[in-house]
Amino acid sequence: YSSSSRERSTDDKGHFDLRADSCGQLTVHAEKSGFVAAEAGPFEAVEGSEHLGLELRLADGLAIRGVVRWPDGSPAAQVRITACRTSPPLAISAAMTDSEGRFELMGVAPGANELVAGPGTAHGPLHRRVAAGDHDVELRLPTPEKIAGRVLHGDGAPAPCSTRPAIFSGV
Q1: CB 101 within 8 A of CB 77
Q2: Whole-model pTM?
């Protein structure tokens, strides 16, 4: 639920009991792997109010399957793939590619979805519009930028250590 964004689990029969921490708009959101997420609300949460007997129905979702490759055709392993609806409700499904670059996104709502394969390059992640239920998606990531150099101590001696990229935009 989104009043305080604290996640709670249902019991084994699907029952839930939530408490709003503050007054204002409240939306209850339910999700389970392999299903399309459901929402109820918004409700006006005021002191002492109750919203009882809510039923959120999780619909069977579709899958999007495919492969992510580098420009040379080699598999892109351990790349995060996200599917976002292009129209409300904006449900999201995410997965990581395996060692062969394959991915499967489950619980995707029918209709058009925007696939995002990242982290991508300095130009940002790769975006591609696909339909839920598409099982032959092939994404080609752009050639990643290469950054190379040396790390030295103040006196010029080599300084073996770990490095990582930090990308800042809008600078």
Answers
A1: yes
A2: 0.62
By CB atoms closer than 10 A (0-12, 13-18, 19+), residue 116 is buried
Closest to 71 measured CA to CA, from 120, 114, 10, 6? 120
Per-residue model confidence as pLDDT tens digits over 131-159: 888 899 999 988 767 788 888 888 999 88
Pairing of strands 80-85, 62-69: unpaired
Say if residue 42 is preceded by a cis peptide, omega within 30 of 0.
yes
Distance CA 33, CA 29 (A): 14
What's the whole-number mean pLDDT along residues 3-13?
Answer: 71
Q: What sign for the dihedral angle of Cα 60, 61, 66, 68? A: negative
Scored b (16 or more CB within 10 A) or e, 156-170 reads eeeeeeeeeeeeeee
Q: Which residue has the tokens 């099982």?
A: 135
